[in-house]
Every structure is written in C-alpha cells, then in structure tokens.
Design brief:
GO terms for molecular function: acyltransferase activity, transferring groups other than amino-acyl groups. This is GNAT family N-acetyltransferase. It contains 4 helices and 5 strands; from the N terminus they run βααβββαβα. Helix 1 packs across helix 2. The model has no long low-confidence stretch (mean pLDDT about 95). Strands 1-2-3-4-5 form a 5-stranded mixed sheet, with helices on both faces. It has one domain: 3-Layer(aba) Sandwich (Aminopeptidase).
C-alpha cells in the first residue's frame, strides 16, 4: 500500500478538499474554501498537503508552524486532518500521520499538536490519535464574536 503525500494544488484539488472538509463536519461552498486556503497560503507558516492513493485524493492535512510560550523550538499544529470515510480503518491515516511526522522532523520541529472537536462523531478520531501516540493535554474553548 503506497500513499503519495504532496502539497495541495488548489486549482486542481479544491473539489476533493471541499468534499473532505464536509466529512470533517464543516460543509463549505468550494469558492469559500478556496478563498480561505488562498488567505492561508499568503503566510509561509501555513501549508496544506494531500494524500493520494492510486491517483485519487483520499485525505488532506492543514498545518501551521509556530512558536509558543510553553516550549522551545517550533511546534507543528495540525489544524485539519481527514481521510475519506471510504478509506478509514485501512491504515491510510497512520501512513499519512507518519509522513507528517517526517515533514516535521526534516524541519527540526519539536512537537506536533492538534485539537479535535468533542462531538460524539469525533470519538473514533480521538481513539485513532491516541493509538498514534498523541496524548490528551488540554480542553479548548471558543467564543464567537459575530
């Protein structure tokens, strides 16, 4: 089983990314998602990568490199991570995360963090992250201003 990981090509990949974003629980019109990603691409600390299997996009990850007050060195934040539901449970997520770790190591990143919603449909994802060596370390809060 070979998984190809490559940087997002926004023009060619937007329809696939839109479909996967809906699977994350965030249905978004393609033109809105495209604008968001274009905004993110203005900052070199943000990157989006896709996972391909047999020339088909089956997942993507949105990453942010940042410094924090808590740790020395840069941290890689997984802002979005999804494997198409048709391919879950087959080892693709594990392979994709391993490649993300390799990307981080090549850039001397000290750790990887992520947040995952506390909705019931995310419980399988939480177990997956734990199996990949992630530890539960915090509780997130949000306040909408508009």
């Amino acid at each position: 089983m070979t998984l190809k990981v490559r940087p997002l090509n926004l023009e060619n990949d937007i329809i696939f990314i839109t479909h996967l974003t809906a699977q994350l629980g965030y249905p978004t019109p393609p033109e809105h998602l495209k604008q968001r990603i274009e905004n993110l691409q203005q900052d070199p600390k943000y990157s989006t990568w896709v996972a391909e299997y047999q020339n088909q996009i089956i997942g993507y990850v949105g990453l942010i490199q940042q410094f924090t007050w808590q740790y020395d060195g840069e941290v890689l934040v997984i802002q979005a991570f999804v494997i198409d539901e048709k391919y879950r449970g087959k080892g693709f997520g594990k392979l994709f995360l391993k490649e993300i770790e390799n990307i981080a190591l090549r850039q001397n990143i000290t750790s990887i963090t992520l947040n995952s919603g506390n909705r019931p449909e995310r419980l399988d994802a939480h177990e997956f992250y734990k199996k990949q060596g992630f530890k539960v370390t915090s509780l997130g809060f949000k306040k909408m201003l508009h």
